[in-house]
Design a protein that fits this description.
disordered N terminus; single chain; 174 residues; mainly alpha
């Protein structure tokens, strides 16, 4: 009688099909991508107070799957940011191979500038929101509706420390 009750309420373990085994063999990159997306979401939420939702974009298919990734994933702002960031890191580190002569290699075209623009597309809305929130807080504080609060995130702290027209530039550098 007890085994009958248990079998009704405890689901049986999933069966491992050849498709699942194939996915498990090819999915090392997917697991790395999942961890990277989780890290990006956690870091942006902790540092900026904004969840960029990179996990919600989905995970890419493994390279050996021969299935195209959906455009929702490939065009997601976080995917474009991460790809530009990784390429920028690679190009920046490869400049070290040329020593002080690296500007000669990029004499006609700066290879990192378009990548920086792509990263700015991702960062600008986050920075603009933080600056707008700062202005709202300052207005409320000046009118006595709210007392000045301590910064909740790193971005809040940095926004509170910057003044004048160059604060977006300063925040991007940080």
């Amino acid at each position: 009688m007890d085994t009958l009750l248990i079998s009704r309420y405890v689901p049986s373990p999933p069966s491992i099909t050849p498709a699942v085994l194939g996915f498990l063999r090819c999915s090392r990159r997917s697991i790395q991508d999942l961890v990277a997306r989780f890290t990006l979401d956690s870091a942006t939420e902790f540092l900026f107070g904004i969840d960029v939702g990179s996990i919600q974009a989905g995970l890419p298919y493994p390279p050996k799957s021969h299935v195209n990734n959906p455009t929702v994933l490939t065009n997601h702002p976080s995917t474009l940011f991460v790809e530009a960031f990784q390429e920028g890191q690679f190009l920046t580190s490869s400049r070290g191979n040329y020593g002080i002569d690296w500007p000669l290699k990029e004499f006609w075209k700066d290879k990192i500038k378009p990548l920086r623009r792509q990263m700015d597309v991702f960062l600008e809305p986050i920075l603009a929101k933080a600056l707008a929130d700062k202005n709202v807080r300052e207005d409320k504080t000046a009118r006595g509706q709210e007392k000045l609060m301590e910064a909740e995130t790193l971005l809040d702290h940095l926004v509170n420390q910057t003044q004048g027209q160059f604060n977006i530039i300063a925040l991007r550098i940080c």
